[in-house]
Amino acid sequence: MNHTLIRRPGAALAAALLSLAPLAATAQNGPPGTPGAGDARRLQFEPSFTQIASGKWTGARLPDGQPDVQGHWSNTVSNHSNFTDPQGGIPGDPTPPRRPLGPRESRAPSRVSDPADGQIPFQPWAKARQQEFLANFHNPTKPEYIEPLARCAPAGVPKSLMWHGYEIRQYPGYVLFLFDSGSRIIHLDNKPHLPAAIKLWNADSRGRWEGNTLVVDVTNNNGKALFGRTGEFSSENAHVAERYIFAPDAKRYNYVATFTDPSVYTRPWTATIPARRREGEKADGWHYEVALNKAGETPVVERYERICAENNIGFGNVAQTPRK
Amino acid sequence: MKLKNHYNRALVLLTALALAGSALAAPAQKIPRAANGKPDFSGIWETTSSADEDLEPHSARKDAAPGAGIVDGGKIPYLPAALAQRKKNFENRDSADPRLKGWTLGTPRAVYYREPFQIFQRARDLTLFHQFGHSVRTIHTNGTPHPGGETNEFWLGDSRGKWEGDTLVVDVKDFNDETWLDRSGNFHSDALHVTERWTFLDPNTIEYKAQLEDPKVFSAPWSINVILHRHREKNFQLIENYRTTLDYEQHYPPKP
To answer: Most buried of A282, B157, B185, B219 (most Cβ within 10 A)?
Structure first.
């Protein structure tokens, strides 16, 4: 493990952006799901979703009774480049992959699992604004066309689950998600949500365990993070009902979340984002972005701080840390 | 009879005082403890000190209430060139404090900054979750060393802790040089080395001490001492404060 770390915080985003160019290509060169041969920058993604049923939890538990799902996770199909065609690249890419995309069926399905057409049921105005964002994404001429994550904004709900690997830590009364850009504290203690006037990038989360499923009620979302580079979004009125459904061996889970927002959508719709555990895999600096340490002779996997604060740029620019 | 009564009352009073005294002297009997027997710092904490306005003693000024500071001995021992930089920082503090850009506060500033932070504790580590910037510091308590050598630089430093009795002693190094120590321009370099000592005074109060060394900036190690209080308001919780986003967040989300 190379411990050379980002010396300048700006390098974090630059490295992240660079890692994305081959990322789209991975889904398009050769059979999806195969790692790029000999190219460490090529990230591995899967061509399909794994089904996981809700039910009893038969796996390990923590002393407080929670299913033990602590550890390092990452999504299995792609980053946030394209919400509804995850392995289809960013539409309008001025430097598209050399090999043309295959038929749609050869790539992972839409993250929109309901409605059946795989599209978010936007109201006409909202569809128009999403299309406008996408049309201007590669050459943003207005501030609102810059994808907020490129400015170091928190990735929010649900984009955080598509952006780099992340760590889950559990405590009596809490589940923490420590993401690459932002973090979430899931409160398990039934306290009321924050007052509605408070709007947050990572929203406000109340959760409970039902068997193998972490059920989370999400409110107070500021709607600002957007869902990805294709510009899908909710408003600050969104209510998200999340279900994190864990496989019995705690190696995989599916995020299944219903978004309700009468100010933006014509009906509630459901997103599905599959994830798998990364311990035991080769650290690749994206899905499994960890450091290796030792306690005596015992190997220890650690997470370094992830802080991105000083960028304010469009997609594709190399971040510069301002000199003092 | 009267005398005896007086004697009895005095005895009761003395006994009560003795009991109170022993309770104060032995808080260890009452502090929260984790399953492994170590003090359990889980909870939401915040200082009531004005340390972040100025670590050193200072009179009232337009941007700060008067304060005695939290530096042992009252004075930070700057090297001459660093003292000049500190004065420059002070003059420019209205715009140059990295806090104003929302940058991560650093260690130990994030601890005595006037916004709450939450501690989540496991046997292997403590997670410090700061409301300001929503930044997260892990204090490892599993016997791991600093892995970084000369290459790692972190906003919050690399934290390795060990228990000395009921005190958590944390060695923090591998800092970047982007953060200040307070609003008045006290600062450090990437050679900063912090030794923290976290001790319960009672179940709802932590005494936080830190020694700061930085041979590029200070002529000698110096120490701070500040009290942290547990938030006990009903349903109190952290509310993320991403100050970095305030300059552009009005552009999102799209509107009708």
So the answer is: B157
